[in-house]
Amino acid sequence: MIDAVTLLAFVPAALALNLTPGADMMFCLGQGLRSGRGAAVAASAGISAGSMVHVALAGLGLGAAVSAMPALFDVIRWFGVAYLLYLAWGALRGGLAADELPERRGASAFRSGLLVNLANPKVILFVLAFVPQFVKPEAGPVLVQFLIFGLILAVGGFFINGLVGIFAGQAGRRLTGSPVFARWLGRVSAGIFAGLAMRLAIMERA
Fold this sequence. Notes:
The chain has one domain (about 25-200). The protein is built from nine helices and no strands. By secondary structure, it is mainly alpha-helical. The relative contact order is 0.23. α1 (about 5-20) runs parallel beside α8 (about 140-175), α2 packs parallel to α8 and α3 (about 35-60) packs antiparallel against α8. It has helices at about 5-20, 25-35, 35-60, 65-70, 70-90, 100-120, 120-130, 140-175, 180-200.
């Protein structure tokens, strides 16, 4: 089992990483502006679920395949680019209907967060670079250790990204009473999603 000293070293490092602005945080910001607080929290949950899938794959050794196979890396990456551009187009056109049920909006945001995270091969490469520093074979099954560390990262990310999304959703809610502001919020959200797509498109494996 993972010892307390290792956990005490990992938790602050994980928290610092979660607090660093990145693609996940910006995605939740965009979801909050576009669809409100509930959707932002759901998107954050989807991102965390995707992170756990990446951690499990890395723990099973499948992440090495992504690292070693440029073609696989690019297929995943371009799928993510296409999906983010699809979300940008949806936000630009007006996004979700105002009368859409909150639970459907949340389910859509969760699915979007999950797919965006899974379609970012850089996440699994990050996990392969970061988590093994704290894994000790003598402490027990490697996969279990990966999952424990991944859960810490996922939970921290869920709360931090969710709070960013809630703040954006609150700000968006105050502005959507005006059709002009509503259109601009859609454009800002579209710009965030398009920017994330561009970032993913130009990223390098190393």
